[in-house]
Amino acid sequence: MRIKSILLFVMALCSIAVFASVDGPEANAGHHDPFARVFEFFFLILFLAVIGRFISKKLHQSAVLGELLIGIVAGAILYPLDTPVLTVFRNFDLIEEVGRMVTQENFTYTAAIDVILAEADLKPEAAEKLRNLFVKPELREYLIIGNSIRFISSLGIILLLFMVGLEISIGDMKKSGRESIIVALLGVILPFAFGYFVSLWLLPDLDVGVHIFVAATLCATSIGITARVFKDLHKLYLPEAKIVLGAAVLDDILGLIILAVVTGVVTTGAISLTEVAIIFVKAIVFFAAILWFGSALLKRTVVLFARFDRAQVKLLYPFALLMICAYLADVVGLATIVGAFAAGLIIREEAFHLSDTIGKSQKESLEVILAPLEGIFAPVFFVVMGLQVDTSLLFSWDVLMLGGILTVVAVLGKWLAGLPLKKGLNKNVIGFGMVPRGEVGLIFAGIGKSIGVLDNMLFAAVILVVLLTTVITPPILVRLLKK
Amino acid sequence: MRIKSILLFVMALCSIAVFASVDGPEANAGHHDPFARVFEFFFLILFLAVIGRFISKKLHQSAVLGELLIGIVAGAILYPLDTPVLTVFRNFDLIEEVGRMVTQENFTYTAAIDVILAEADLKPEAAEKLRNLFVKPELREYLIIGNSIRFISSLGIILLLFMVGLEISIGDMKKSGRESIIVALLGVILPFAFGYFVSLWLLPDLDVGVHIFVAATLCATSIGITARVFKDLHKLYLPEAKIVLGAAVLDDILGLIILAVVTGVVTTGAISLTEVAIIFVKAIVFFAAILWFGSALLKRTVVLFARFDRAQVKLLYPFALLMICAYLADVVGLATIVGAFAAGLIIREEAFHLSDTIGKSQKESLEVILAPLEGIFAPVFFVVMGLQVDTSLLFSWDVLMLGGILTVVAVLGKWLAGLPLKKGLNKNVIGFGMVPRGEVGLIFAGIGKSIGVLDNMLFAAVILVVLLTTVITPPILVRLLKK
Predict the structure, then answer these.
(1) CATH code of A302's domain
(2) Mutate to test the interface with B, among A31, A106, A374 (most CBs of B within 10 A)
């Protein structure tokens, strides 16, 4: 069976490689849809996801691990083949910076490229690839493809968190509030302390700002992976699931505060208490508004909406709420997935039980109606997350050593955070549920790199931490939950 | 009731205006999702769509007309308010051209802007707005929003055509093949002839190339509007629906040939027979492949796919086929919607009736599973189509006169094309079903403008033809079909 899986996998990758390396249709005289190639890549990514999930299942692993790993492997194979869209994925920040210099500082395009490539300190092959990309006439088409796929993936992860929220009620979250707070606070304090001392111990010559930043990155929690594992195994009803989800939401707020404090300390040497206060107030107002809306206004607004479009109320109302909550979360500085999760918490099936006097509404359950959206878009997030990992960065002794040790304390810190909870809970599930750093860790690391605190080696080490914590969690959780 | 509708409409627009004019969240220290504002606009567009449909229904009109008109009205109100995303929508070609000059010809950004604004010959207010947009630091964010919304709308229209195809079988299409060919051919010849002579008569001083191009634009058929009206009224089972859909598919091929011929004649003075032959061969190979796949391979590939992901085969297989067919249609030079329609024709519910020995597959019908995707994305296409109409272009005497007369012959040409069909068919439904020029007409007009054949006045007149033919069709079809 394993050999068959591997064969399949190789076949899949070969077909993908052929596909992705074929250049797009020439701009022909007829209508050329700028998004036709997005459809192609959407197809390829879904194809990869299906294969990845299948292999994962055969090896008794979780689906999300399969999607993530097949993305990583496909990326490792396609990147050396000079797949332009992949180069776009991995260098969005640099391309964006060129765009900024050209439009804001009136650099010529070639001058901006030279400056960026000189500053970015990439490996020679990577710099070469990026330069090739920049001079391709199809660059703008690749940017459209890259942006659209990123959008699909963004939509996918908020749909996933929304569906997770849908299975849980606000009451459940309140009930496990105390535990969530403990886990969130300890899950920030312990990894920070461990990270700080490891960094100080291994890199004694570097500035204190570096240690703080490395430590801060270890505090992050990305809930996407854990939420998906719980959902795939149908374990969202467990109290452990609610504690982890609540802690992850709190961690998002704590992360904002840490980032504000750390960036302040590193760049200006001071902590802005006003800024911290503003972050707090915004987050509290956001959650208060969500709770109030959920308890007082849901039913009424559903009835109002049903007057306008009764036939589709169960589809459009939840989706519209998801869009607006994800947006508002971003406005107050929180992650869009926190808003999406909140939107899911608000929505309750009962609120859609309308009397059928003024026309029919859908008879299917909310889950049946909304699941197809999640099924199409969510896998894209995990495959694309895998595609973005540049494995070639990781193979240096320094990176592996430092990254390995940081990973150990990163796991330890989150795991220990679950221990003080009351008996009867599966503390391992809670602790390991908090382990993946995912895209949140990447954001921290990216900021650290952009303000010049993390050099390339440290950045790569942190990426390794993000990768390892993200990849080891699904198999561990599957084991713990299946027991 | 009408007053209530109008009040509602005004309320909706006011709230939208407030929303859209608020500037996005400042780039804060935390995670700022580049797509958060796309979610905001997605919400606003769905909101507009619901209001538009509701008003339309109250006035006994078709839903699609409501979406289209509310888009036009919202655009007319928001554009003067300097809504940057709208400016992006309406000037994608010019922005793209600036991008090309900067990246391909190493112009500085400001120099490129000056050249483009000087060449584009916009109205002073429009030029001013575009210049303001170009110097905004958030320009790149607006481009991401604009691109993402266009992607959503592109996905929406192919999902719609896919669902239309799903309700029809390949056999149905073959049965009405002869009629479709008659309607398609006459529907090209008559509007071309009428358009040519009207243009010659009204603008005797202009070049013959101009007359040819104006005439060619009138040949276009956009099937989106008609398909939506048939679908909303549950009339896709009528033979008339199949004739119109078949004729629209043929029209897409004919349109490509006309465009190749006309562009050749106008730019080089010669018709490239090779090019015409290539277009023909590509289209025939595409359709032959589709038919063969549909008859010989569907069931087998579904069974194969089900081995990999049985639980989601009814969701992922059709969606993946849609993606790949839309892409391949674009590769052979056809519209992505033609590929999407073909994908829908191929898919048959029976092919998904698998024995349940190796696990369960979804019990809901394909339509129930896929409808939510269409319900979310398709309305965006029509609202965005409305938003893109620049009504201020249309209010000049010359434009209204010329556009009005061309519209009359444009309608007449398509309507007459239905008359020679055999008795028993509702010839009016067929003729008027072919009337909307929609985005296909826009593509023709755009090419005409870019090769310098159509000046601003003629371009605006053609836009008026596109607009009027698109807007008058739904109410006429509703009347004819409800009789």
Answers:
(1) 1.20.1530.20
(2) A31
Distance from CA of B204 to the nearest CA of A (A): 28
Residues B123 and B258 in one domain: no
Task: Report yes or no on A66 lying in a domain.
Answer: no
Q: Domain tally for chain B?
A: 2
CB pairs under 8 A between A and B: 223
* Two tokens, residue B107: 């112009």
A286 within some domain: yes
Q: Does B324 touch chain A (CB under 8 A)?
A: yes
| CA dist., res. A231 & res. A234, Å (int) | 5
Residue A38 burial class via C-beta count within 10 angstroms: exposed 0-12, middle 13-18, buried 19 and up: buried
Question: Do A308 and B39 lie within an 8 Å CB cutoff?
Answer: no
Q: Which domain holds residue B234?
A: 149-482
Nearest to B103 among A30, A140, A315 (CB): A140
User: Does B335 contact A440 at a Cβ distance shorter than 8 Å?
Assistant: no
- Residue A11 distance to chain B (closest CA, Å): 14
Same-domain pairing of B155 and B271? yes
B256-314 per-position pLDDT tens digit: 888 788 877 877 777 778 888 888 888 889 988 988 888 888 999 999 999 898 889 99
Do B163 and B98 belong together in one domain? no
- Model confidence, pTM: 0.90
Encoded tokens for B10? 């005004």
Least Cα separation, residue B175 to chain A (angstroms): 28
Position B6 scores a pLDDT of 62
Give me the average pLDDT of each 10-residue run along chain A (483 residues): 61 61 49 85 96 91 90 90 87 89 92 91 85 89 93 94 89 87 94 94 90 90 89 91 92 84 79 83 88 87 90 94 94 88 92 71 86 96 88 86 94 93 89 88 79 83 90 92 83
Question: Do B409 and B466 reside in the same domain of the chain?
Answer: yes
Q: Does B316 touch chain A (CB under 8 A)?
A: yes
Do B442 and B321 lie in one domain? The reply is yes
Neighbours of A35 (CB within 10 A): 23
Q: What ipTM did this prediction achieve?
A: 0.89
Q: Is the pLDDT of residue B74 over 90?
A: yes
Q: Is B268 on the interface with A (CB under 8 A)?
A: no
> What is the share, in percent, of chain B residues with pLDDT greater than 90?
45
Residue B27 counted as domain residue: no
Q: How do residues A249-286 score in pLDDT, each as one tens digit? A: 898 888 888 888 887 887 777 777 888 888 888 888 99
In DSSP terms, B108 is beta-bridged to A108
Task: Report yes or no: A410 and A195 within 8 Å, Cβ to Cβ.
Answer: yes
In this structure, the answer to whether residues B123 and B207 fall within a common structural domain is no
Q: State both tokens at A110.
A: 């070639």
* Residue of chain B minimizing CA distance to A37: B327
Out of A13-17, B339-343, B378-382, pick the least confident. Answer: A13-17
Residues of A whose CB is below 8 A from B35: 150-151, 154-155, 336
Chain B residues closer than 8 Å to A334 by CB? 30
Residues of A in contact with B305 (CB under 8 A): 50
Q: What is the pLDDT of residue A3?
A: 64
Inter-chain CB proximity A308 and B51 less than 8 Å: yes
The span from the CA of B168 to the CA of A167, in Å, is 37
Contacts of B447 in chain A (CB under 8 A): 29
DSSP states of B293-356: IIIIIHHHHHHHHHHHHGGGHHHHHHHHHHHHHHHHHHHTTS-HHHHHHHHHHH--GGGG---G
Q: Please say whether the beta carbons of B252 and B334 come within 8 A.
A: yes
Same domain as B159, residue B112: no
- Tell me, yes or no, if A312 comes closer than 8 A to chain B by beta carbon: yes
Distance, CA of B400 to CA of B465 (rounded, Å):
10
Question: Which sign does the torsion angle of CA A44, A50, A54, A60 carry?
Answer: positive
Q: Which of A102, A150, A263 sits opposite B102 (nearest CB)?
A: A102
Q: Does A372 touch chain B (CB under 8 A)?
A: yes
Whether B393 maps to a domain, the answer reads yes
